[in-house]
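Supplementary Note 3. Input sequence used for the single-chain structure prediction.
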Amino acid sequence: MRMRISGVNAAIKYIHSEDIDLDESGVVRFREIKKQAQWQNKLQKSIPKIIDMDSVDWAKVFIFANKSMLKTPLQKALFLFNMRSGLPEELFGWRADNYGPYSREVNNKIKESEDITTESKTNKHSGITYTHKLKNSGEVEEIWGALPDEVKELVKEVSSEIKKLGNVKKIGTFVHDAYPKYAVNAVC
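The predicted structure, written as discrete structure tokens, is reproduced below.
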């Protein structure tokens, strides 16, 4: 029997009132749906102010907020930000890939950007890592200053979660559990 439940709070009450056993990935997915709803509600008035920014602008914002970012954590941070903010997914061009959600568009725009440098480093444990940094943070500092406070708060929250997860494998597992639609091709 399928039951229709409207709203996140109603779903929480239902789960607590029934004997429902969610596995770990189900809990992660449920919590992420709750975060999505909360953030999208909170950002309703801010979306018109930020809708004109493109994917590389958001990459620059995340790099600025974190001083630098590795390639895969940046992709996952942008993905989580996109899902939680309610910005159109087409802005980033996400698709399911070997390591979960991936945007070739974001990757190409970062490569083409004159504002972002990418350093590669060979690591015997994880192969080659790519670190993105800003050449000059002045322009991005202006963008950051113009962002609504609640948008900055979301950028900081996503950045903090990515840092807490630590390594790429844990980040990937979290994103795959939270967004199984994008994990169909995942190998990690």
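The chain has one domain: 22-182. The first strand starts at residue 68 and ends at 70.
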